[in-house]
Amino acid sequence: MKEAMFYRQGKDGEVVCELCNHHCHIKDGRRGICGVRENRQGTLYSLVYGKLIAGNSDPIEKKPLFHFLPGTMSFSIATVGCNFRCLHCQNHDISQYPHTHDGQIAGSERSAASVVQAARQAGCHSVCYTYVEPTIFYEFARDCAVSAHEQKLKNVFVSNGFMSPDVTRDVAKVLDGINIDIKAFTDDFYKKVCKARLQPVLDNVKLMHELGVWVEVTTLIIPGLNDSEAELRDIAKFVKSVSPSMPWHVTAFHPTYRMMDREPTPISILRRAREIGLEEGLRFVYEGNIPGEGGENTYCPACGAELIRRHGFSIIKNNMKDGSCQQCGERIEGVWE
Questions:
Q1: Inter-axis angle of helices 199-210 and 229-242, to 10 degrees?
Q2: 181 and 302: one domain?
Q3: Based on the domain organization, do 178 and 31 belong to the same domain?
Q4: Which CA distances in Å does 284 have to 56, 206, 222, 309?
Q5: Least packed by Cβ within 10 Å: which of 60, 280, 287, 324?
Q6: 266 alpha-carbon distance from chain centroid
Q7: Both 80 and 175 in a single domain?
Q8: 118: Cβ–Cβ under 8 A, 6 or more apart, which residues?
């Protein structure tokens, strides 16, 4: 156990966790919504510090991050727990583990130094905090991130974007890139499907960008829930309002966990979502989870030249040079070196 960051004392031995926008009021002996932060006699503890449930080398494109060191590998880590309860979570076996195993905390003991060493030995260029919401193991993630920077590795989050503004400002000091889910554009969806709220996510997309972290956005399109043209257009307009150069990934849903009653996303809907994003003025919109369809390639927004050809998580061809289009010289926004 490690004493948690970002909490304050409440009344009658209660503590208020200020790590994310749930702001859980936790009584003595109880845990927050994430299931991994516990109040013990007025002190809040992280129960997952250094207790990794996963540690793998993944292509950075899997996150997905398409404008961040393309073609490199990222050492991906996670603990159990999550502050969302998404009905369609593809990693529900670890994200909901404390809730489905009577509060047990699974994982292998690791130090921040050993994580960074493993990343270097695997030839990775970054450490990625992913699979579950990384905010819930923030203390360990931050220590790893500091160590990674010392060893000239970059840090990336794959996040639901629900961290508190104070945490956003703190992590931005050691974070180089982040992919944030905008799961839908209605509070109703967030409340019913994720047990959360939309506005804090939108606020964090803006704040991360303002703080200089490279941001990409993902929307998993679920038939009948968030696939209307109006809603997709609203998401595209929001992303453009933050930055027209912010990549938007529109990805295909496949039935899983507690959402087996929905059909997989038709390619036609992803194609239309990409068209909507481009119509609204986004420079980069990508189709995900349908390899080989061409919507995952990067094209120059100025001359239309194919810059990066992808197939799934693999780079087939890279025609960029020094972050620019070789054909017309247009600067392409991203983290390229």
A1: 30
A2: yes
A3: no
A4: 28, 18, 21, 14
A5: 324
A6: 24
A7: yes
A8: 55, 75
Q: How many domains does the chain have?
A: 2
Same domain membership, residue 55 and residue 42: no
DSSP 8-state code for residue 261? S
CATH number at residue 226: 3.20.20.70
Greatest Cα pair distance in the chain:
67
* Same domain (yes/no): 13, 74: no
Residue 40 and residue 167 in one domain = no
Cis peptide before 64 (omega within 30 of 0): yes
pLDDT in tens, 82-130: 999 999 999 999 999 999 999 999 999 999 999 999 999 999 999 999 9
Q: Which strands sit side by side in the sheet containing 7-9, from one edge to the other? A: 7-9, 15-17, 25-26
Token pair 């490279």: residue? 214
Q: How far is Cα 44 from Cα 2, in angstroms, rounded to an integer?
A: 9
Q: For residue range 225-283, what is the model confidence (pLDDT) as tens digits?
A: 999 999 999 999 999 999 999 999 999 999 999 999 999 999 999 999 999 999 999 99
Q: Is the pLDDT of residue 202 over 80?
A: yes
The reply to whether 331 falls in a domain is no
Determine the Cα–Cα distance for residues 158 and 76; give it in Å rounded to an integer: 10
189 and 132 co-located in one domain: yes
In a domain, 335, yes or no: no
Give the domain range for residue 174. Answer: 51-325
Enter the pTM of the model: 0.97
Residue pair 280/310 in contact by the 8 Å Cβ criterion: no
Specify whether the CB–CB gap between 24 and 36 falls below 8 A. Answer: no
Token pair listed for 184: 């839908």
CB atoms closer than 10 angstroms to residue 100: 13
Do residues 38 and 79 share a domain? Answer: no
Token pair, residue 317, equals 């061809």
